[in-house]
Amino acid sequence: MEEFVTEEAALPSAPGEVEHPSLALANSAVALPGGHTADLLGTPAQAEQWLAQRDLAPEGAGLAEVCATQLRSLREQVRSLLASRVAGQPALPAAVTAVNDAMTRVPTASLLLWDEKAGPYRATPHPTTAIVEHALAAIAADAADLLTSPDATRLTACASPPCNRFLLKHGRRQWCSTRCGDRARAARAYARRIEPRTT
User: Fold this and answer.
1) Which residue of 14, 34, 38, 80 is surrounded by the most CB atoms within 10 Å?
2) What is the Cα–Cα distance from 3 to 36, expressed in whole angstroms?
3) How many other C-beta atoms are found inside a 10 Å radius of the C-beta of residue 54?
4) Cα Rg for the chain, rounded, in angstroms?
5) Could you check whether the bond before residue 125 is cis, i.e. omega within 30 degrees of 0?
């Protein structure tokens, strides 16, 4: 049975997550050894904290479960797109549609507003009720940018099972973290020790 763990401190950022919130979103549920899964969006409070840490929502926004569910749903679609790109296979149309829908659901134009004292100014509307929609739009736009940028050629999956995170490769590095690299090296060393010797 799968068990969920929630400690974010145990999950260092994978290369590329800081620059690409869509990569961080895709990696916000990670498979761990022993059948455990760490889900950083498991509750509305965790989803709110995750968004706030990336400046995608204000602290104390009071997200509801429906908001966390929307974020987890976009995560699955982004994961699907990244996996398709890494495998060199066509993307699922539903995943492409989900990202496009998230990008177009909110206004992006800076509107003309008028302050009694300061006069005219322009700002993008960002009502409290649309916090999650704006966050989803920003993440979806980043996913589209990542998948169509030169960085897409560096996109790969962590090479240390059971980890299911994605990263942007730098040099020969194939792992999302030192922890996964150490685990992969230990597994290779163990496999060499138990290989039957031929004489």
Assistant:
1) 14
2) 5
3) 16
4) 20
5) no
